[in-house]
Each structure stands twice: as C-alpha cells, then as structure tokens.
Specification:
single chain, 15 strands, 13 helices, binds 3-methyl-2-oxobutanoic acid
Length: 403
C-alpha cells in the first residue's frame, strides 16, 4: 500500500516552541493540506488535490515552518516519504510561505532565505542569526535552521585570537565568506565589512562590498555605524547590495568609545541612537543589529523602525537575536559576556576527547585492528620473507600480518 501525506487534521504547539502536525490520509480522492502553526496561530492552509488511494496515518514532527511553495514541498515529501521519518520545518520567510527540511534527508528542500524575506519578518516570528566563519560552521548552523549566517569580523577574536576586530581586513572576510558559502546554506549569508573597508570613500566601499558579493558569495553586507555612514550605505545600496546596519556597541569603534562599553545609557546618547536607527531604516537597510544597549532602548528602537532589529546584548524585545558561534557552543575560553548563553560546552568536550585520543596513542590502544588496513596473509608472508634476510629489525612471525 502506498502512503501519502494528505490532510493535516490537527496541529499543536509543543512546549519547546516547535509545532507538532498530525497528518491523516482520508478518502479515495486525497486532499493534501499543509497547515503551519506558529505560536498558536494557524498562519495559512494550502490545499491541493492528488488522485492517490491510500489509508494510513502518518505523524510528522515539526518545528515552526515556513516555505515558499507548499505544493512543491508536499510533492517532494511524497516523492521521498520513505526517507522522511522526521521532518523539520524551518522558518525562512514571511508568514505566508513555507519550507520543509528533513532531519534525515540529506538534500534540504527548504528555500534559500533572502534579504527581502528577512525585512518582511518585522514584527513576525523572531529571527535567529549566528556567526560562522568556515565550511563546517556553516553546515552546522544551517542544519540547525538559523535564518541568517553572519560572517562576522568577530572572526578576528574567536578564530584568529586577535584582541580587537581592527586587525582583520577585507581579504580575510572574503576568504571566510567563501568557505561559508561552500556549505550552500539556505540561511541568508551576510558578510561583515571590516574596519577601514567602508571609511575611505563611497567608491572604495562599493568595491569592497562588491568583493564580498562577487568573490565571497555574500548575499548582503553588514556595516557598523549610524548617520555618519549614510553616504556610503546609499552607494552600496545603489549597487544593489542589501545592507544590514549595526549600531550601539560597535566593536570597530572600541578606541573612540574608550573600551567595550554598553552604549545609550544616558538620554542624549539614547536619543542619538534612536535617530541613527531611524535613518538606517529609512535609507533602506533590510535589518539593523543592536549591540550592547539597555533592554529599554532595544525595545524603543524596535518599535521606532520599520525593519527588523536583531539584538546582541539588547534585551528580549528585538525582532531577532544574534550570538557568536563559538560563544553559543561554548567553544571559547570559558568566560563570556553577560549577554551570552552558552548552549553547549564543546571546548571542554573537545579537550576530553583529545585527552582520550592521546592516552590511546600512548598506550597503543589506537589504532585497533579494525582501524588498520590489511593485505591477505600470503602477501604479508611473502613481504616478510623477502626482507627478513636483509632487515636488521625484528620482524613479525611469518604467516601473520605485520602488527
Ligand atoms: O562580528 C560579529 O560577530 C558581529 C555580531 C556580534 C553582530 O558583528
């Protein structure tokens, strides 16, 4: 009996924030219904007709789901149903769109996320952004279904061990962006414009942003600064490159700020920042990072601008959150800023794993026979026989493989 996904009969939000969708096949003319649930709200129902005769009940576990083409998604699911035991439906776009990705099926069917789709998420489902700087990092981030991968200039600190982001240049960001893009992520790939790559002239800034797109494969760029950067921002936008703004504690201004300090704590400074945010939004940024500002200011700016705000140390009210890859995974030194929540302790786990490897090497426990290559016994015997007369070294017993 063939099984197809047919009508979605019920959907409920599970406590961890995802959704559970129960799919039931009914009748001889099968109606395919895909229902998407986001925090208690059924966003959209798409109906299609299939002439498949089946009777089965299939339970599909999902997380929050959006995609671009429900019919294509459903067709794809049915075509690959044997390979899907668990479907992960990932947020990618506006409320009226869907995407589906399997945790088992190796080729995700989710649609590529674009800058306009991120912009359209203002006030909608929260946006998750994480940094990644290389191929495995991007694969991991994309498997987790994040919306945006930022090739941040924080690579200077967390990968290259530099004390500030001022030491990293455009060549390095291009290289890291290329590595990220080789993962072919569905997440939007945003490349950071490093210090001095957009401070000299509009022409130089467009050239550098263009390198991130043309050589690195970035789909948008991010640059730090408020109204001061508007001419450059406009020039990059005029070159058809989407721009993400970044205000608040902007690490490239570390010396001008007198250190890494929370910004906008006084009324004047907060008011200036609100004006910066408005200007960036009106100029055409598709989103704005708010870093290191009091939660109340994060909330005010989020209400004041028409594009999504993505916070890092900006409280819970922003339209999305971003963290540095190594911080989220506990791959750092172990001491993190207040706004970081490490969701794993991979550095400790890595040390423990390498300690076990070292101990096994030293004890001779690694590699095992199963981890070694062999030749047939006759060949091993012939090899040993051929050299036993000339070799000064003790050899394994003839007839057995070398250890
Ligand atoms: O470079 C970076 O990681 C960033 C984020 C902190 C937003 O700019």
């Amino acid at each position: 009996m063939s099984v197809t996904f047919t009508s979605v009969r019920s959907a409920e939000v599970n406590p961890s924030g995802g959704t559970k969708v129960v799919v039931v096949v009914v009748g001889t003319v099968v109606v395919v219904v895909v229902v998407v649930v986001v925090v208690d709200v059924v966003v959209e129902v798409v109906v299609d007709m299939l002439d498949v005769v089946v009777a089965a009940t299939v339970v599909v576990e999902t997380s929050i789901t959006f995609s671009s083409d429900a019919h294509a998604v459903t067709t794809r699911i049915n075509a690959n149903k044997d390979r899907f035991t668990s479907l992960k439906l990932l947020p990618v776009a506006s409320k009226s769109k869907y995407a589906v990705r399997s945790t088992k099926y190796p080729y995700p069917v989710a649609k590529k996320i674009t800058a306009p789709e991120i912009k359209a998420r203002k006030g909608g489902p929260k946006i998750t952004m994480v940094t990644a700087y290389d191929y495995p990092g991007a694969v991991i981030a994309d498997r987790a279904g994040v919306d945006i991968i930022l090739v941040g200039d924080s690579v200077a600190n967390v990968v290259h061990g530099m004390p500030t982001t001022l030491e990293i240049g455009i060549d390095e960001i291009v290289l890291h962006t290329r590595a990220v893009k080789r993962a072919n992520p569905n997440a939007l790939v945003v490349a950071d414009m490093p210090w001095l790559s957009f401070h000299i002239s509009a022409e130089d800034s467009v050239r550098n942003a263009g390198r991130l797109v043309r050589e690195g494969g970035a789909e948008a760029v991010k640059l730090e600064g408020g109204r001061k950067r508007l001419p450059v921002l406009q020039a990059i936008l005029d070159a058809e490159i989407p721009v993400m703004g970044h205000i608040g504690l902007t690490p490239q201004s570390v010396h001008a700020m007198g250190g890494f300090k929370v910004q906008g704590k006084a009324v004047d400074a907060a008011t200036e920042m609100i004006e910066d945010a408005r200007a960036l939004s009106e100029a055409g940024c598709f989103s704005i990072v708010l870093e290191g500002v009091p939660d109340i200011l994060g909330e005010i700016i989020t209400k004041e601008v028409d594009v999504p705000t993505i916070g890092i140390g900006a409280g819970p009210s922003t339209d999305g959150q971003v963290l540095v890859f190594h911080d989220v995974l506990g791959l750092g030194s172990g001491s993190y800023p207040k706004f970081v929540r490490p969701y794993a302790d991979l550095a400790d786990q890595a040390v423990a794993a390498l300690e076990r490897f070292k101990a096994d090497v030293e004890s001779g426990n690694f590699p095992s026979d199963a981890e070694s290559y062999h030749v047939p016994d006759e060949i091993a015997a012939e090899l040993l026989k051929g050299i036993q007369d000339v070799s000064p070294h003790p050899l394994p017993a003839p007839g057995g493989n070398p250890p």
